[in-house]
Amino acid sequence: MKGLLLLGLLLLFGGQRSSACPHLCLCHGSQVDCSGRSLTSSSLPTSFPSGTTELHLHNNQLASLPNGLLEDLTSLRSVSLHGNPWLCDCGILYLRAWLLHQPASLRSHLGVNCSSPPSLRGRLVVYLTEQEVLDSCHYWYCDLALASQVCLFVFVVVQAALLVVLLILLKKFQRLSKEARRTTEESYTAGEGLRENEYSHLK
């Protein structure tokens, strides 16, 4: 009896959570409007009401969608995703796969264009090949490697410049030391000669 009661409570509260309107969105019946709210991939709601038929996510700052976000929305008839800066790297694979499995009548793919990387900018996400997406997953590694090489080159150049300056200062110090030693010796020799002359006059 207690088990049935617990199960009923779980179903009741679970149903309430699944039908609640997400934070930062507006809901009108089965329509959920989260458009134009500067949502990012991290601030996007993690779930939507299970009975949602229209979902508006356009004109935000979405670069990708979390895996599985739209899987349970079996009643969807319209989804708007345009006006977002989609990043077409490995993180776009879920959205691409979801779009590919949607009927053409849903028209969800319209306006879902890549904003980056530069090689894919302007391309429709749904028409990207898997190889293109996988290739783009590594482009930032190349930038990082190039930046590392540039930093290493700058470091070597700076070290070389410091070494040259050190050698110049060392040679200058040696030259000044020699001049000081020669001046001291000349002064000592002159002093000795002067004392000898004075001694001769005294005789």
UniProtKB/TrEMBL annotation:
Record membrane topology: Single-pass type I membrane protein
SMART domains: LRRCT, LRRNT
Subcellular localization, as worded in the UniProt entry: Membrane
Transmembrane segments: 146-170
InterPro entries referenced in this protein's UniProt entry, alphabetically: Cys-rich_flank_reg_C, GPIb-IX-V_Complex, LRR_dom_sf, LRRNT
Source species, domain of life: Eukaryota
Domain LRRNT: 20-54
Single GO cellular component term: membrane
SUPFAM superfamilies: L domain-like (SSF52058)
Alphabetic keyword roster: Blood coagulation, Cell adhesion, Disulfide bond, Hemostasis, Leucine-rich repeat, Membrane, Signal, Transmembrane, Transmembrane helix
GO terms (BP aspect): blood coagulation; cell adhesion
Gene3D superfamilies: Ribonuclease Inhibitor
Signal peptide: 1-20
Residues covered by the LRRCT domain: 84-138
Name of the protein described by the UniProt record: Glycoprotein Ib platelet subunit beta
Originating species: Sparus aurata
Gene this protein is translated from: GP1BB
